[in-house]
Specification:
By secondary structure, the protein is of the alpha/beta class. The protein is 32% helix and 23% strand. Strands 1-4-3-2-5-6 form a six-stranded parallel sheet. It has a five-stranded antiparallel sheet with strand order 9-13-10-11-12. The protein is elongated.
């Protein structure tokens, strides 16, 4: 998979590509349909398939104080796009200049001349350019071959990133996973903590949440993908650890039957099931007893999921 920057010249072999254009944060079922159409079109015509995404997300420019809301990092999106069959990922670095670009300049200057796309695939409701003044019809009017893909629906309506965020904020990992077609996963570098978990028999791999959406605080059944590719089951606390002072927001997975040094290494933690909200315990004994129950429940749920 090739990663491209819109500020750089387009490599000549990738000109004439079919471009899937959108934010694609989360890469849920609806996004997958758009990219699938672009890949199919590209393969039918013997062209490269490129997926374009925005980073930072336009919302971060227009609402810089918005709480964290990302569902995927660029690296995660790149892997997902590659798995969907794309040849390259094009990153639009969204800034004031891009926000102020009139839609016709987008269509003619960016899409046609700079990128040299032979065709564009978007969702039906995709807009672009200053004041959201552009849409697929404008692309067609400017001579860009354009296809649109309808939203994917389930029994509750159109599948969207906002629905996934709402599910995660409610602790509904199962709905989020169904809409995403995989569990929501947080990727980060393991950092040194206060090592309190180690002293009570539950060493954790601490991750900063960064720009990710904050799911409901609490205890989760999780799996971790380790640097060597192994998938290990575990339980994790996501939140501010109310039993310890000072409060500190972390994702703290404890992986069952694992021993090793993960400090400074990148791992990915997938949230499978919400077990309970965070709680404050008066004694360490009460805390460790509850943690043992949490781990037993996480093992049970993860085993049931694997068997399903």
């Amino acid at each position: 998979m090739i990663r491209l920057d819109h500020r750089d010249p387009m490599p000549e072999p990738l000109r004439g590509a079919i471009l899937a254009l959108g934010n694609f944060d989360g890469f849920h079922q609806g996004h997958q349909a758009v990219v699938g159409e672009a890949v199919s079109w590209a393969r039918a015509e013997g062209r490269p398939a490129i997926v374009a995404t925005f980073d930072p997300h336009p919302m971060r420019h227009f609402r810089p104080d918005a709480p964290p809301f990302r569902l995927t990092t660029l690296d995660q999106r790149e892997e997902l796009f590659a798995a969907a069959g794309a040849d390259a990922m094009l990153v639009f670095h969204f800034d004031a200049a891009m926000a102020g670009m009139p839609a016709p300049d987008w269509a003619e200057g960016m899409i046609s001349r700079h990128i040299g796309a032979a065709g564009i695939v978007t969702g039906e409701d995709f807009t672009f350019g200053k004041g959201r003044g552009g849409n697929p019809d404008l692309l067609r009017e400017r001579g860009v071959a354009t296809r649109t893909v309808a939203a994917v629906h389930d029994e509750a309506g159109p599948i969207s990133s906002s629905r996934i965020r709402a599910a995660l904020q409610a602790g509904d990992c199962e709905t989020a996973a169904r809409l995403l077609t995989r569990p929501f996963a947080i990727r980060g570098t393991v950092q040194h903590g206060d090592k309190l978990g180690r002293t009570i028999g539950y060493p954790t791999a601490n991750l900063d949440m960064g720009h990710y959406l904050r799911p409901r605080y609490g205890i989760y059944a999780v799996t971790g993908r380790l640097p060597d590719g192994r998938i290990v089951p575990g339980a994790a606390n996501l939140g501010v650890r109310p039993s310890f002072d000072p409060p500190k927001e972390l994702l703290e997975p404890y992986f069952f039957d694992f021993s090793g040094d993960l400090y400074g290494r990148e791992i990915e933690v997938a949230l499978h099931h919400f077990l309970r909200p965070e709680a404050k315990f008066d004694t360490l004994d009460a805390l460790t007893a509850q943690m043992a129950r949490d781990c037993d429940e996480a093992r049970r749920l993860l085993a049931s999921s694997s068997a399903a």
